[in-house]
Amino acid sequence: MATLKSGDAFPSDVVFKYIPWSEESGDIKACGIPINYNASKEWAGKKVVLFSVPGAFTPTCSVNHMPGYIKNLPQLRAKGVDIVAVVAFNDPFVMSAWGKANEVRRDEILFLSDPDAQFSKSIGWADEASGRTSRYAIVIDHGKVSYAQIETERGAVKKSGADAVLASL
């Protein structure tokens, strides 16, 4: 597939790995059980913000990228966003722990795993050198992409940050 762009239909076969948040597995040391998360199906009739980071627990991702989304959740909801999700190449256990470390509860933000950066590769937005997911943001509005931007500058959070996404809504 070519690079995803505004106006495109969101692909119909996107499946991530995911560990749902629960009270029982809310402790960072609790593992939980990974399940498939069929994003294409779950997001079909919703407005979704999906942002991607190269890796959980990394400096730019943890200090500059994630906090903006946590802070701006109320503003995103006010703009009609039903789901906010972050994706990285990390396994679902790491993504779940990253959510817990950021004190995100009750799936306020979904922490999804893109194993082997399969989705990111399918849209042309995986880092070729490392094989990781690139830093990008996509807004999907009832199955149509309304915003799709990738960071081209290493360590930058200009096009994929919560402020840029909010400005696009």
Automatic annotation (TrEMBL):
<dbReference type="GO" id="GO:0008379">
    <property type="term" value="F:thioredoxin peroxidase activity"/>
</dbReference>
<dbReference type="GO" id="GO:0042744">
    <property type="term" value="P:hydrogen peroxide catabolic process"/>
</dbReference>
<protein>
    <recommendedName>
        <fullName>Thioredoxin peroxidase</fullName>
    </recommendedName>
</protein>
<keyword id="KW-0560">Oxidoreductase</keyword>
<dbReference type="InterPro" id="IPR013766">
    <property type="entry name" value="Thioredoxin_domain"/>
</dbReference>
<comment type="similarity">
    <text>Belongs to the peroxiredoxin family. Prx5 subfamily.</text>
</comment>
<dbReference type="GO" id="GO:0005777">
    <property type="term" value="C:peroxisome"/>
</dbReference>
<dbReference type="InterPro" id="IPR013740">
    <property type="entry name" value="Redoxin"/>
</dbReference>
<dbReference type="Pfam" id="PF08534">
    <property type="entry name" value="Redoxin"/>
</dbReference>
<comment type="function">
    <text>Thiol-specific peroxidase that catalyzes the reduction of hydrogen peroxide and organic hydroperoxides to water and alcohols, respectively. Plays a role in cell protection against oxidative stress by detoxifying peroxides.</text>
</comment>
<feature type="active site" description="Cysteine sulfenic acid (-SOH) intermediate">
    <location>
        <position position="61"/>
    </location>
</feature>
<dbReference type="GO" id="GO:0045454">
    <property type="term" value="P:cell redox homeostasis"/>
</dbReference>
<dbReference type="InterPro" id="IPR036249">
    <property type="entry name" value="Thioredoxin-like_sf"/>
</dbReference>
<keyword id="KW-0676">Redox-active center</keyword>
<keyword id="KW-0575">Peroxidase</keyword>
<feature type="domain" description="Thioredoxin">
    <location>
        <begin position="4"/>
        <end position="169"/>
    </location>
</feature>
<keyword id="KW-0049">Antioxidant</keyword>
<dbReference type="GO" id="GO:0005739">
    <property type="term" value="C:mitochondrion"/>
</dbReference>
<dbReference type="InterPro" id="IPR037944">
    <property type="entry name" value="PRX5-like"/>
</dbReference>
<dbReference type="GO" id="GO:0034599">
    <property type="term" value="P:cellular response to oxidative stress"/>
</dbReference>
